[in-house]
Amino acid sequence: MKSISIKGSERESVGKKATKAVRDAGMVPCVIYGGEQPVHFQAESKAFKSLVYTPDAHTVAVDLGGKVYNVILQDIQFHPVSDAILHIDFYQLNDEKEIVMEVPVKITGTSPGVLLGGVLNLNLRRLKVKALPKNLPDYVYADISELQMGNKLYVTKLGNENYKLMHPDNTVVCQVKISRAAMKAAQEAAKAEKAAAKGKKK
Which N-terminal residues, if any, form the signal peptide (predicted)? Predict the structure, then answer.
């Protein structure tokens, strides 16, 4: 999985007044969990743009004065009116410990059902993946090249030896639905066939 870097500085005071001062200075208060002790730090709000405002998933290298923590985003709080980032929680990665993370789904291939007029519905845009940090994928690829009209692609078809998908086997990732146009065309074709059959009988 791709990693992005964020530079920040450790915080000594973490009370309400100190936190307000951090935000007033255009910084975001953050904390890293998962290590021996929580690590509190601050960073400029613009530093999180490529992490927060993207559909992709990333690991993060947080650089605090030369000491680097490899983490993933765990939780984020936004201001209810301005949408400004109020606080971010990160979880520290352990190279030997599996982690659960949401990863975006990427469609590959061409569905025969879509070529015949069907509509592809993506039921899940992200899937929960469990893996060692080094095996976290950038995307979970969903191959739709065998989907006929009315077919569904289940999560069991997306297995990979490097990671495990944390969803029930009957979870539908995407499906090809019959479009109104295709349904109308099928109905008209059936009527025409029926009419032709009647004509032959006469």
Answer: none
